[in-house]
Amino acid sequence: MKIWNSLDDVPAETGQTVVSLGCFDGVHRGHQLLLARLLNAAETNAAKSVVVTFDPLPAQLLYPETAPLAVMALEDRLAALEVEGVDAVLVIRYTRDVAAQAAEVFVEKVFVKTLHAAAVVVGEDCRFGQGRAGNIETLRAAGLRWSFDVSVLGDRTAGGTEGRRYSSTWVREVLSSGDVGIAEQILGRPHRIRMEVTRAAGSWRTKARAVQGMLPASGDYAGWARVGSGERIPAIIRIPRRASLATDITVELQMPADRYAEKSPGMSRKISFDFSSTS
Question: Domain named FAD synthetase: which ranges (predicted)?
Answer without folding.
Answer: 13-160
